[in-house]
Prior knowledge:
Elements: E1 3-4, E2 13-15, H1 23-27, E3 35-39, E4 42-46, E5 51-57, E6 63-74, E7 80-83, E8 96-99, E9 102-105, E10 110-117, E11 126-138, E12 147-158, E13 166-174, E14 181-188, E15 194-196, E16 201-207, E17 210-216, E18 220-222, E19 227-233, E20 241-248, E21 266-273
Amino acid sequence: MIRKLVPPTAAAALVAAAALSSSAAQARAPRTIISVSATPAHLTLLGRTSHRLVVHNNGSHRVSVVATRASFAFDLYGNAQISPGALLRRSARAWLSVRPSQLVLRPHEERVLRIAARQPRGATAGDHPALVLLSARGLGHAPVSIRTRLGVLVFVRVPGRVVRRMAIGRVLVLRSAPRRGIAVTAINRGNLVERLLAGQVTVALWRGARLVTALRGRARDLLPRTRGLVLVPVRRSLHGAFTADVRIAAQPGRATRPKSPPLRGARRAFALRL
């Protein structure tokens, strides 16, 4: 079974609150009861170096935060999902340590967790994914029992020969909302996590020798040795037969953190009907 995990925002903030109240209470301005954030949202651990994870209580009540380890994967559209480690050969869940594993935070207080990894002998070179789950529970005289959970994506990079190589697979036309557009299958054939930026995947639509339009794909991440869809939105006014020139742009190594070898581009042409 795979359970969906709401991915963290750029600030790694996830706010979740639920309350049962009377109609009179609903008339009052709501207060944020449970609001926990963690920074950063993504961690890359090099070797056995530990990393700081700052957890902040933005809410109005004391909270207990418990940190646990898990495995995760991305679905076809790039959403993170909690997944059993047995399904993921490259999972680094068992390598992680989180100290302390439990915190109690007063309103507006922040504390630091230390995350480290100890990879076993014989671990393959490249990036290995894992997830730190932070489960928060209200304490004291909170009006109701409230729980919230956020996930921080962790990538453990094992030294050795690293490979960055992207390829383009099938291209699909999606005709129904909310994902109307062109879905490009991006294939990560390397051993590093690839973070495709907005506009790094492009689709140029041609009719004969005339360029009709150039479209930009959305951002998404791809784990090593996996594939997924990059959605390229299309205007509703575009119809008919086209030749689609699909490209994944090259990326210099200095554009990634930590620094990696450069990524070579990929290109394929398809006949499409919108």
